[in-house]
Amino acid sequence: MSGPLELWTATLIAIVTVGGIARTVLRRRSADVRGPAWRFAALIALQILGGALLYPTLFPPSVATPPGRLVVATHSAKPALRASGDVLVALPEAGPLPGAVRAPDLGSALRLYPEPGRLRIEGDGLTPRDQIQLDRPAEFAPSPAPRGLIALTPPKPLAPGERFTVAGLVGGGGGVELIDPAGAVVDQAAVAADGRFQLSAAARAPGLALFDLRLKDAAGRTVEQIEIPIETRAQRQPRVLVLAGAPSAETKYLRRWAQDAGIALNLDIDVGAGVALGDPPIPITRATLAEIDLVVVDDRRWESLSPGARTALAAATGEGLGLLLRPTGPLSAATRRDWTNMGMATSGDGEVHAFRLDGPTNLELSRYDLAQAGRDGVPMIRDKAGAPLAAWRPRGQGRVELWIVVDSYGLALAGHADRYGEMWSELFSTLARPSDGPGVWVDGIARVGQRATLRGVRGPIPGCRPGWRRKPARRRSGGRPRRPRRLLAPPRRLAQGL
């Protein structure tokens, strides 16, 4: 009883009940013939029960019922039995659902039904149009993942020899394979527990190429196969100067790979006594090095360089030139001191050790026991044990790197020319002077009716002037002002939409 009305009602019911019991008792006493005792007791009990039930009938107890939900159906939402009080709203992407109210977007649905205190989103989820700030707690009930490819992240345009990655999401588990245009499997992996995968390969000649992504189930049967377009754009040929103290198989295969990759490589081998091999020598001066993007020099040739050439290399490196230091054995004290002055302090005795590369290339190669001693070095190209095979550090506007692999050409001899090219492409692209990049590309997959994002845009887009403004209407003499022309899509809006 929470108020005076309920108190007075209960008192009145009690008085009436007591009066009814007293009346029944008096009638039994005054009666000449009395009925059975059980009948009298039943009458008394029924009056008490009637009085007790009358009060909750007039004032029923308040029962806490959960408020209804606003159920928003998106694409792939399935018909289901809804709870009492739920309101079902179907967005334009949802299929036909019995009893659903159609809404043009989520904002309209929230304004149309403000009473439900909770929101439940069913199906594949909200599109970018409906990804707004919500005014109530929400839960997401995704539809069961379909079998096959669900999401895909294609690679951006690449440079020849650059490595690309294809990642995505699949339903149903199993494994995925990446197949090159020649039909060879270049990478394969098992699908993770959450359905994600990641494959990688190397781009080749400039142009368009179609790789195939094949999805297999746990039994090895092909579930789905799609084409992955790979665009390789020709870049400005980097100008590389290789300074060697003796001919070797490493310089031979490096030059062969550079020719295939379209890299302008000049090989200068000085064997001493005035004998030079390879291409016509280039004077090592500050002016000539300004026209070169990367210099590869070994310790033998470094020791034979003049002090002026070393000074020119140091100055050019500070101005953006890349310098790759390649030891060919244990370093002398003078070479260690010079390289330390260049910013590449080394540790280790320079002995040769065997190692294996990480990945499908299970080939044993050799490296020197040398490492970059400073803590500011950036490691790259690790072996199977995780030890770095190269490390670079900045020097002014350029970079200096130490490469300790002895016989990387063994990859090409063993039939792994792609892996060999990936390693040297990563070295060259990391050290060389920066180029203009791959240009403009579309981020993700462009779909009809959806906005797309352009990446790599430099400068104004043709036809889209960022500072566009509508000119005020000019008043004609003796009349009303001329109405400006209506544009279907002003350049400003076009630029924002892109």
Largest sheet: 8 strands, mixed
Strand content: 25-35%
Q: What share of residues is helical?
A: 25-40%
Q: How many strands in all? A: 26
Number of continuous helical runs: 11
Strand order of the largest sheet: 15-14-13-16-17-24-23-22
Describe it for me?
The protein is α/β, with parallel strands linked by helices and 498 residues long. 25% of the residues lie in helices and 29% in strands. The strands form 7 sheets. It has an 8-stranded mixed sheet. The protein has a 5-stranded parallel sheet with strand order 3-2-1-4-5, with helices on one face. Strand 19 and strand 20 (364-368) form a beta hairpin.
Secondary structure topology:
Elements: H1 4-30, H2 37-58, E1 69-73, E2 87-90, E3 101-102, H3 106-112, E4 118-123, E5 138-142, E6 148-153, E7 163-171, E8 175-179, E9 185-190, E10 196-202, E11 207-216, E12 222-232, E13 239-244, H4 249-261, E14 264-272, E15 275-278, H5 286-289, E16 294-298, H6 299-304, H7 307-318, E17 322-326, H8 333-341, E18 346-347, E19 352-356, E20 364-368, E21 371-372, E22 378-382, E23 388-395, E24 398-403, H9 410-413, H10 417-431, E25 441-443, E26 453-455, H11 491-497
Parallel strand pairs: 1-2, 1-4, 2-3, 4-5, 13-14, 13-16, 16-17, 17-24
Antiparallel strand pairs: 6-7, 7-10, 8-9, 8-11, 11-12, 14-15, 18-21, 19-20, 22-23, 23-24, 25-26
Helix pairs in contact: 1-2
